[in-house]
Amino acid sequence: MAIERRAAIERRAAIEHSDVIAWVVQPSAAALQPVPNAPRVTAASCAPLREILIVDELGNRRPMYVPAEQPLTVFLDGRELVTLMTLGASPEMLVLGYLRNQRLIGDVATIESLAVDWSSGTARVTTRAGIRSGGAGAAPGTVGTSCGLGTVFGDLMRQVDAITLPEAASARVSRSTLLQLLETMRHHDAIHRAAGSVHSCAVFQGVDLLVSIEDVSRHNGMDTVTGWMALHGVSGADKILFTTGRLTSEMVMKAAHSGVPIVVSRNGTTAMGCDLAAKLGMTLFGRAANRRFLCYVGVERFDPEGDAN
What we know:
The chain is an alpha/beta fold and 309 residues long.
């Protein structure tokens, strides 16, 4: 077993950077056009892995990859807003999703341009009319990205009643679809297999994967797919969202804000996540790996036998 384990580690360490992609856009998704009056955005991705020299339990030195986390400081209309720690696979989508999920923007057309420059580690966002100085949409203080930080939760909760998700009869999922989804995601975790220490997030339409992202936090993953959906006018009503992160109330709220009624997690959920999902009429699946999963709430959308219509 020790020999097999060492061989697996060495294979993982030998992966070339060019073989590892953190942001995957399927052809059907790549063919989509941005919404009218969409902002001008750069495409400033960077290498997701960095090679370091480690010493194993036997004292042997060998190279291994780790996720290349780095700071991205967002400036909104010239004002420093937040520093996001990210792998930088799709920083423009991450920033768009962050701004939308923080309620700093509604329609992405309110933004004129978004330029990411990795030489300075900055993302400069210019809006067409400026951001309001108070109330909903006001810029928060500068915060670091981590679990439980960076979300204007009170403002989000006050808007729960304004969110309308599709009825259960029109947005369902079958067991076979969930199993195919989980199998697909087994092949879209290149960063995790190479280096670990990351989360995945993906958007599906039925069994068809549209986009997937790996990043250093579950919130980054959710924000990135949110940004992509907003930029391309993709409705969440007939989509399924997959994440490796736990389904806290914040994650549930972000998915609902994009109109997604069904969320699947490789991890679990919290009581508040369940309560909020029930209030919104959302379905949460958790502990989803291999051929097993649990439906925590919203079982009316789940067909355990046949395929969903």
